[in-house]
């Protein structure tokens, strides 16, 4: 019998919290069952597998990040939009390290196409409109910015800036 109050959404949110606490790689259906003090088998009516749980956490993280980015970009353009976008990525990664890692989880093409990851690219393209880039340069710029933001966040998380002045972002 499934314990009352357990829903897929509640389990995914709890999985995201667990990811922030112990790391995304440590999130499993078994670990989540321990958190709720239920048998692992009771969660399989809501989740197919640990991979399903991780995919759902990734989708949640992508949506949260896209929502924050959209809010931060509203009414901004050019450099102000670019800095706001970078700040969102950094702030999210600092506040939710496990979820941030989850946002990089490989998704199958169909799931990725329906995810908020598409919104991230659209938001980045909106920032780049003011730079008058034609294709394929715009696509390359979207990838470059994503790489720069992720690289910065990853270096900072690994202590890569501990030897220098505080980060400017």
Automatic annotation (TrEMBL):
Highest rank taxon of the organism: Bacteria
Keyword DNA-binding part of the UniProt annotation: yes
Gene Ontology molecular function: DNA binding
DNA-binding region boundaries: 28-47
Record bears the keyword Lyase: no
InterPro entries: Homeodomain-like_sf, HTH_TetR, MT1864/Rv1816-like_C, Tet_transcr_reg_TetR-rel_C_sf
Span of domain HTH tetR-type: 5-65
Record's keyword terms, sorted: DNA-binding, Transcription, Transcription regulation
Name of this chain's protein: TetR/AcrR family transcriptional regulator
Lineage: Bacteria, Bacillati, Actinomycetota, Actinomycetes, Kitasatosporales
């Amino acid at each position: 019998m499934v314990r009352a109050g357990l829903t897929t959404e509640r389990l995914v949110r709890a999985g995201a919290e667990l990811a922030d606490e112990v790391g995304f790689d440590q999130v499993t259906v078994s670990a989540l069952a321990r958190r709720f003090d239920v048998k692992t088998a009771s969660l399989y009516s809501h989740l197919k597998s640990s991979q399903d749980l991780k995919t759902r956490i990734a989708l949640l993280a992508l949506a949260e990040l896209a929502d924050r980015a959209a809010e931060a970009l509203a009414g901004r353009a050019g450099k102000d939009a670019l800095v706001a976008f970078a700040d969102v990525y950094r702030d999210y990664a600092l506040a939710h390290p496990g979820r941030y890692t989850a946002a990089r989880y490989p998704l199958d093409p169909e799931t990725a196409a329906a995810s908020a990851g598409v919104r991230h690219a659209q938001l980045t393209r909106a920032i780049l409109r003011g730079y008058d880039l034609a294709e394929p340069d715009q696509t390359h710029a979207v990838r470059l910015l994503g790489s720069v933001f992720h690289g910065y966040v990853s270096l900072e998380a690994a202590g890569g800036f501990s030897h220098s002045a505080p980060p400017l972002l």
